[in-house]
């Protein structure tokens, strides 16, 4: 009888080859043919395991918030002016002391090296070339110092989840400041983890567990698995305790007692701009600014926390009016097109944060995929501005992008 044993790593590693040049060329052609974020989404779906794709693509519970956010942008009516000279269009803007090539910030996302083995490094390099800020997450898979070394000229922001261990939070903030991060983003809508049913049903864990379904997926996507198994271990770079599901981790480490007093404490720890992410109500925005915030992000966490939460695009005008010129206003959730960015800016946003849009590109083709996503968005923003008859983002007003009438806001998408 043949004796069986588990293979040693030294025997297994030579079998896990990186992708061949011919395959890279085919993937480059596929990226070049992508014209929209949905094209990149389709490519991403074919190139990563289902559980990985669903981690990015999904939302909380029945995903009503996510569907409504996207529907809100689809229902925007653009009202162009004609007979305008639009030969020269400038989509750049000033945001929190920096000049951005677009009114766009790449949002913080967790577990990014699970999506592509280069992870945050690939994203920040693409952001550096495109001239837009990139936000590293507390739940990122590259350390703050290593990301800074990967793109020293990039505009880097750092996103913070305040932990129950305040000393550890202070240390992390100090490391970000020492590494040249310019803006601190405090996320405030994660008192507990949202119930993301796709992750539950897929058995998503940190790191991915090798189950029967996982092993079957390896046969269909060998290059993704080869890159995962032959690069550094997949783990959260800033967390000491990272076992179990993402929801388990959030509930163990994040602080549900977070209040405005903690924002005031954080203001004492950080010299640069602070942005509070996860605001939907005007009164919360006013209180955050009064406590020291330099900006707010109108957000329902990409539809990944409280399902049926208000749609950020609908909340935006009221929040912008409440804040006035005392702070910057950003928006996220549901943004998949340059016209979405234009519509948000027209209705009071200084800039837009995107997450899924660039993550589709990352899954589809690594750094080249992120670069393709940013190129598509830039082209869409510029073309939309020309067709609206404006030559700078400062000229955009609500008259250019009409939102859904208020009486329809409570309808299902």
What's the topology here?
Elements: H1 9-12, H2 21-33, H3 37-47, H4 50-57, H5 64-74, E1 77-78, E2 93-95, E3 98-100, E4 104-106, H6 119-130, E5 134-136, H7 144-150, E6 156-160, H8 166-178, E7 183-187, H9 197-202, H10 212-220, H11 222-229, H12 246-253, H13 260-269, E8 274-279, H14 282-290, E9 295-298, H15 312-323, E10 328-331, H16 338-346, E11 351-354, H17 356-388, E12 401-402
Parallel strand pairs: 4-11, 5-6, 6-7, 7-8, 8-9, 9-10, 10-11
Antiparallel strand pairs: 1-12, 2-3
Helix pairs in contact: 2-17, 3-17, 6-17, 14-15, 16-17
Structural write-up:
Helix 14 packs across helix 15 and helix 16 packs across helix 17. The protein is globular and about 60 Å long. The C terminus is likely disordered. Helices cover 44% and strands 11% of the residues. Helix 14 links the parallel strand 8 and strand 9. It has one domain: Alpha-Beta Barrel (TIM Barrel). With 413 residues, the protein is an alpha/beta fold. It has an eight-stranded parallel sheet with strand order 4-11-10-9-8-7-6-5. A two-stranded antiparallel ribbon has the order 1-12. A two-stranded antiparallel ribbon has the order 2-3.
């Amino acid at each position: 009888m043949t004796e069986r044993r588990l293979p040693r790593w030294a025997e297994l590693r030579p079998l896990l080859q990186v992708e061949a040049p011919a395959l890279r060329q085919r993937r480059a052609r596929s990226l070049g043919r992508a014209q929209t974020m949905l094209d990149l989404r389709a490519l991403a779906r074919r190139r990563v395991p289902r559980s990985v794709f669903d981690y990015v693509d999904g939302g909380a519970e029945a995903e009503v918030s996510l569907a409504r956010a996207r529907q809100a942008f689809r229902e925007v009516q653009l009202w162009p002016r004609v007979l305008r000279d639009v030969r020269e269009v400038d989509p750049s803007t000033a945001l929190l002391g920096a000049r951005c090539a677009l009114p766009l910030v790449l949002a913080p996302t967790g577990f990014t090296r699970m999506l592509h083995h280069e992870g945050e490094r690939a994203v920040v390099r693409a952001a550096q070339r495109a001239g837009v800020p990139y936000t590293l997450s507390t739940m990122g898979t590259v350390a703050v110092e290593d990301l800074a070394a990967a793109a020293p000229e990039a505009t880097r922001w750092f996103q913070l989840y305040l932990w129950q261990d305040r000393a550890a939070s202070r240390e992390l903030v100090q490391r970000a400041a020492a590494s040249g991060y310019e803006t601190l983003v405090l996320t405030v809508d994660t008192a507990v983890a949202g119930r993301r049913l796709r992750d539950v049903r897929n058995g998503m864990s940190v790191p991915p567990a090798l189950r029967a379904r996982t092993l079957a997926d390896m046969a269909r996507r060998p290059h993704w698995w080869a890159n995962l198994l032959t690069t550094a271990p997949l783990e959260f770079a800033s967390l000491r305790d990272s076992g179990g599901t993402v929801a388990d981790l959030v509930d163990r480490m994040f602080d549900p007692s977070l209040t405005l007093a903690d924002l005031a404490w954080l203001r004492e720890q950080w010299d640069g701009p602070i942005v509070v992410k996860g605001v939907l109500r005007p009164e919360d925005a006013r209180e955050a600014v009064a406590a020291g915030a330099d900006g707010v992000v109108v957000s329902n966490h990409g539809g990944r926390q409280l399902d049926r939460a208000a749609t950020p695009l609908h909340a935006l005008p009221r929040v912008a009016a409440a804040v006035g010129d005392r702070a910057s206003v950003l928006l996220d959730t549901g943004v998949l097109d340059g016209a979405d960015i234009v519509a948000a800016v027209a209705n009071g946003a200084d800039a837009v944060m995107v997450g899924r849009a660039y993550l589709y590109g990352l899954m589809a083709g690594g750094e080249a995929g992120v670069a393709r996503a940013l190129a598509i968005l830039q082209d869409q923003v510029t073309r939309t501005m020309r067709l609206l008859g404006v030559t700078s983002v400062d000229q955009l007003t609500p008259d250019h992008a009409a939102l859904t009438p208020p009486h329809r806001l409570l309808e299902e998408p």
